[in-house]
Every structure is written in structure tokens, then in C-alpha cells.
Amino acid sequence: MRLTTKTATLLALVALIALAPLFFPSAFYYRVGALIFVNGLAVTGIVILTGWAGQISLGHAGFAGIGAYACALAPVHLGLHPALAILLGAGVSAVLAWLVGRPILRLKGYYLGVASLGMGILISMVLNNERDLTRGPDGIDVPDLGLRAALKTAGLDLSNGEFWYALCGIVLVLGAWLALNLHDSPTGRALRALHGSEVAARTVGMDVPRLKLQAFVISAVYASVSGSLLALQNRFITPDVAGFMHSVEMVTMAVLGGVGSVAGAIFGAAVLTLLPQMLTVFAEYEQLVLGLVMVLVMIFLREGVVPSILRKLRGTGE
Amino acid sequence: MTLLSIEGLGITFGGIAAVKDVSFSVRPGEIVSVIGPNGAGKTTLFNMISGVYRPGSGRVVLNGEDVTAMSPHLLARRGMCRTFQNLQVFQSMTVLENTIAGYHLQESGPVLADLLHLPASRRRARAAEQGARELLRRVGLERAAEREAGSLSYGSLKRLEIARAMALQPRVLLLDEPAAGCNAVETEEIDHLIAEIAASGVAILLVEHDMKMVMRISNHIVVLDHGEKIAEGDPATVSRNPAVIAAYLGAEHAAG
Ligand SMILES: Nc1ncnc2c1ncn2[C@@H]1O[C@H](COP(=O)(O)OP(=O)(O)OP(=O)(O)O)[C@@H](O)[C@H]1O
Ligand SMILES: [Mg+2]
């Protein structure tokens, strides 16, 4: 029996997440793993928006910022449980994406890139400047999610690293599952169709601006949840989470692995999360490396690493 | 009974009239062909009728409703669909998916149901897939169903576009050179297919350069030259019209 891409991707992902800890040289790698999963989640949203719907966002970190600061602020100011703050952040991100996307996506062309760039910068500015609320560039503490303690009383005693590795891994699998469901669903098909030919998509009855908007809102929610998980596991967050570099990082991760494929995007997230952890020099030249990766992929592997390799394998296999 | 009526449609590009004051009408089950030399304005006319271009003047009336410059996706809801002279297939999707896309209006539902893979979403998708496979069989592409559309020959892609348009079960179907790039056998198949669709009551508006095909299957022919309608009538009348012979058939003879 031939595995569908969906089943194969999910099985591989679950197996990797479950088995990787057997090879961890130190407990530190639980943390690296959790960071990979958090980035992988945001990049999965980019796959839906850019890989399938063909729309470019240069401000997705803004939504990660909203998700992160919702978890920092809502428990303190609104008395909301941090878990509910994740949902609040996702809701706010969705509404903002809708408000920004609705007028912009009626226009033809790549205006979303410019508009989202502006939106991202604006969010970043607010987080930096509203010191009374956000404490500005120095960052702000984030409350404990409380789930680890609850698990402990229930008899499951995980270290902090193990807990976040498991939780982020589960959320990533869930996010991948939703995205893969979407891919082969009527909506996913319509997104990929309008990417292929907008005029043909319209003549078969697709409401192109509305579909693009749906993709933008969904991907904003992915970025927001990713930001929330980052804030909650670090117990601390700075406005960098919403910065332009973080937006570029998301797009580069997606493009490196393969912006059309969920597996590829997660692979890209893994590579670009691991590199700076393994090579300290990388941190200094991060921007240079991101740019270089982008250029090299565009020249040599247009579809990204994973789809290119899969195509080669299939080509020789048949 | 008129299903589609074109009333004084015109458009200019950079001050030059590409189509000027063109009127005619189409009834259900009728095949109306629009012919004319290269650059006569046939595709431009289609683009205006199908809402891709906003007409500079005139009206498009579909089933009694003024649908001038209405967005193509709303026209699709009202039963109008088209194919393209310069192929517009979804290249990186499979042939089957391309055809299923034609069922969009029937298969689309709440995006949440799609994300969660709910039974309702699966049911809609499955029904669309069944219909699509049946249509691919009708246009002779069932064996290519799982192939990436971009890998198909030109003639096959033409038929794929027809299948995708048929998926909408349109009341009015605009076909822009459906047989271009097809061999004699394929052309005859497309010919039969068009006649079959018309026989089921669909109004067909056809642009085609293959004169034998046009003369054989059209009920009515509209002749454009330099954006203007220079003649119209049944095939026999039009082919005897001196202006038509001069503008179109003459040009073809000269070229051949
Ligand atoms: N978007 C546009 N902008 C400028 N000029 C255009 C545009 N679309 C069409 N035209 C012009 O309008 C005229 C009619 O073109 P059209 O494509 O409608 O001809 P046609 O009858 O379909 O020709 P063919 O038989 O070659 O397909 C041409 O002179 C063309 O250059
Ligand atoms: Mg044309």
C-alpha cells in the first residue's frame, strides 16, 4: 500500500520527535528540540500562506509578538489563565490579520508583502515603546503555564526541558495535521489553484480575495501560537520576537526546506534553529547566512531541499 | 428565448478600439461561433463577457440580469464558465485536482471543517472527485488523472480545461480555441464533445480557427474584423458573405 504524503509526514514527524531524545548528548537538547518545534509551527503557517496560496508576508513575526505578549500580559492584567492567553493571542492575531488582509488582498499583486511589513514594524514599535505596559526593549517576565505542576500531581514528573519538548512536539504534530488536512481539502485545493492561475480560479467560482484572506488569517494563528509557546517556555520575552529579522527567519526556513511542503518547512526550521546552536560564529553572521541560504536555494533548489530530494528519489525509483 | 445577450459591447486599449459596439445573443442549446482574423478582438470580447475585463461600453445580460463587469466568480455562480486560448491550468496540481477544482462551488464549505478533516468536508470532496473522474473519462484523460498537469501535451491540456469548465455544469460555456494545437482525431473528439454539451441545453459561445469545425457545428456565426461585427448569420449565409470572404476567408487563403 502506498502511504499518502499526509500519513507519511505525520508518522515520520511523530517517530522523530519520540526517538530523537535517545540520541541527545545532553539535556540541553530538549530545549533545542522545543525551539525547533516552535519555529516549525510558525513555518507551517508560512507553507499555507506562501507555499499554497502564493502570498508573501514579511511581518509574520508581528503575530508571534502578539501571541507572546498575550501570554505575558493577559494573565497579569486580565487575570486570564496562560493557556487561555494563548487563545486570546490567537484571536487577536486572527482579527488583526483579517483587518489588514481584507482591503489589501482585494488588490492584485504583492501588496500583502508591503502591508504586512508595515504591520510587523508597527507591532514591534508598540512593543518597544509602550514601556508602561510592555516594559519596552528590556523584555518582560511571563507567568508559568502551570501544566507541568499539574502533570506532576497527576503522577507524571517531567523536567522542564522534557515538558516543553513534549508539549511543543505535540502542538507541532497537531499543527502539521491541520495543515495536511487543509492541503487535500476543498479549501486547500482552491488555495493551490489560485496560486497556479488566478484568472482560472475565478472563472471556476473561487472567491480569490476571500481565500487568500483565509490563508493569511490561518497562518497568523500559527505564528501567534508559536510566539505564545516561545514566551511560555522561556518565561521571558523581548520585542525581538516581533522583529523584522524574525519574520525573515520564518520565510527563509520555509524556503530552505521547501515552501510547498510541510515536511520540508519543518526540516528548514530544524536546520536554521540548529545551526546557531552548534556554531556560535553563526550567531554573529546570522543575517548574512540567512541571505546566503535564500539566494542559494533560489538558484539551485527552487522548490526547497526536501521536495527537490523527494523528486530525485521518485525519479530514480520509477 | 435568449439566455445571454451582448449589447453594444466595446473596449479601448490606449485609445485604440479593440472591440467596438458588438451585439448578438445566444439561446440555450445553441452553438454561436465568433470568428475573425488574428487580432480581431475575439478573446477580448470573451474577456469582457466573462468579467475578466471591464467593458468600456455596452451591457452583458445573462438570463435577464445585467451582469456587465461582474466578477468571474459571481458569474460562475450564475452558470457562466469559460476556457482560455492561452492555457490557464493549475500546472503543479494533478489532472484530477484540476478537474475537481471545477467543482469548487459544490465542494467548498466552512474552512474549519476542512482543517479538521470532518466527515462533511470529506463527503463533499469525495463527491467532487467522483464527478471529476467521470468527466476525465468523457474527455479521454482518465489515465492521466494522477499526473501533474504541467506534464501533459497541449492538446490534452485543452481537453482538461474543457473538463474543468464542464464540472461547473454551466448554462453558458465560452470556449476560446478549444481545438487549437490538437490533431485531427482530437479535434473531432472535441467537436463531438461540444455538440454533446450543447445538446444537453448549454448555450455555447465558441472561438475557433478551424473553419471546417466551425461550419459543421455552429448554429450561428458572428464575424469580427478590427473589433467590429461585419456579418452574422447561419454558416451558409456567412460563408457566402463577400465582406467575410475578403476579411477572413480571403486572408486565410492568401496565407495558405
Ligand atoms: N490587455 C490588453 N492591452 C492592450 N491591448 C490589448 C489587450 N488585450 C487585447 N489587446 C489588443 O486587442 C486586439 C484584439 O486582441 P484579441 O486577443 O482579442 O484578438 P483575437 O481575435 O483573440 O486574436 P487571435 O485570433 O490571435 O486570438 C489586439 O490588437 C490586441 O493587441
Ligand atoms: Mg484570441
Q: What does this protein look like?
A:
Chain A is mainly alpha-helical and 318 residues long. Chain A has one domain (29-313): Orthogonal Bundle (ABC transporter involved in vitamin B12 uptake, BtuC), CATH 1.10.3470. Chain A contains 16 helices and two strands. The model of chain A has no long low-confidence stretch (mean pLDDT 89). Chain B has eleven helices and ten strands. Chain B has a six-stranded mixed beta sheet with strand order 6-7-8-3-9-10, with helices on both faces. A four-stranded antiparallel beta sheet of chain B has the order 2-1-4-5, with helices on one face. In chain B, β4 (57-62) and β5 form a beta hairpin. The model of chain B has no long low-confidence stretch (mean pLDDT 92). Chain A binds chain B through residues 178, 181-182, 184-190, 192-193, 195-197, 199-208, 214, 218, 260, and chain B through 50-52, 71-73, 75-77, 81-82, 84, 88-93, 97-98, 100-102, 104-105, 107-109, 111, 114-117, 121, 124-125, 128, 164-165, 167-168. The structure holds adenosine-5'-triphosphate and magnesium ion.
